[in-house]
């Protein structure tokens, strides 16, 4: 597995490079945004980005990556306030770990993010829900023929529902489905926010949803879906 590591602190970068290489990862190290932008076109399996860089921010690198490739992004930062966490997730980041951190925890989160993407890669079909088309092979979603941008978390939530068509999923099942490691920002309130955002983006009338249906007292289920030939 190839990882692009973007970190301007040489001590941290060298330690991470050694630890990740010892785990069997192939690591390419960049010290700034300019180097990272050049390398990001090589299609790495995972991107590990420091937020504060001398010539830009990890947010900008993440945005560029997500426009070109479907791959997990993990932010490394000393800033853990909620605004920055949500901003990172909205830009498509898959995880957010604050410094200082334990290397075993970071490796666990890297492996978890890779597992999520491997699970989604196993679904290779096109599905239609009302006026929504989901191309899981390309990881793209269309509404009335126009592509809809979903963050990584929104897309994973949609895929969990799609992979369990016909089943009512409790809130806990959805949380476990989109995040299989501890993350303080992935909680019940956050799930409500992302359900609402998905409905706003996909439903004709988000107040009367037909795609993500609430089953009162139990949870949510995917509406009527058909597999395209």
Entry keywords:
single chain; 229 residues; alpha/beta; Rossmann fold; Arc Repressor Mutant, subunit A; 2 domains; five-stranded parallel beta sheet; elongated; DNA-binding; transcription cis-regulatory region binding; Stage 0 sporulation protein A homolog
| Structural class by secondary-structure content | alpha/beta
Distance between the termini: 33 Å
Note the run of SSEs as H and E: EHEHEEEHEHEHEEEEHHHEEE
Low-confidence stretches: none
Sheet of most strands: 5 strands, parallel
Spell out the CATH superfamily of the largest domain.
Answer: Response regulator
In the CATH hierarchy, the third-tier topology of the largest domain is known as: Rossmann fold
Backbone CA Rg: 18 Å
Total domain count? 2
Adjacency order of strands in the biggest sheet: 2-1-3-6-7
**Helical percent range?**
40-55%
Shape descriptor: elongated
Q: Give the percentage of residues in beta strands.
A: 15-25%
The CATH architecture designation of the largest domain is 3-Layer(aba) Sandwich
Question: TL;DR of this structure?
Answer:
The chain is α/β, with parallel strands linked by helices and 229 residues long.
């Amino acid at each position: 597995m190839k990882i692009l590591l973007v970190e301007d602190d040489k001590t941290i970068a060298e330690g991470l490079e050694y630890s990740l290489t010892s785990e069997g990862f192939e690591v390419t190290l960049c010290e700034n945004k300019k180097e990272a932008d050049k390398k990001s076109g090589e299609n790495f399996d995972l991107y590990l980005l420091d937020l504060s860089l001398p010539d830009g921010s990890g947010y900008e690198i993440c945005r560029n990556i997500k426009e070109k490739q479907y791959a997990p992004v993990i932010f490394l930062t000393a800033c853990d306030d909620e605004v920055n966490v949500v901003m990172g997730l909205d830009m498509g980041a898959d995880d957010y770990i604050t410094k200082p951190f334990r290397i075993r925890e970071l490796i666990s989160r890297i492996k978890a993010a890779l597992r999520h993407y491997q699970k989604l890669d196993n679904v290779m079909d096109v599905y239609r829900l009302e006026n929504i088309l989901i191309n899981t092979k390309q990881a793209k979603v269309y509404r009335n023929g126009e592509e809809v941008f979903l963050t990584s978390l929104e897309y994973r939530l949609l895929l969990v529902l799609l992979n369990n068509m016909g089943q009512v999923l409790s809130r806990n099942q959805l949380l476990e489905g989109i995040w299989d490691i501890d993350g303080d920002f992935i909680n019940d309130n956050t799930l409500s926010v992302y359900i609402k955002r998905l409905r706003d983006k996909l439903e004709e009338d988000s107040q009367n949803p037909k795609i993500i249906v609430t089953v009162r007292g139990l949870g949510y289920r995917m509406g009527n879906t058909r597999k395209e030939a």
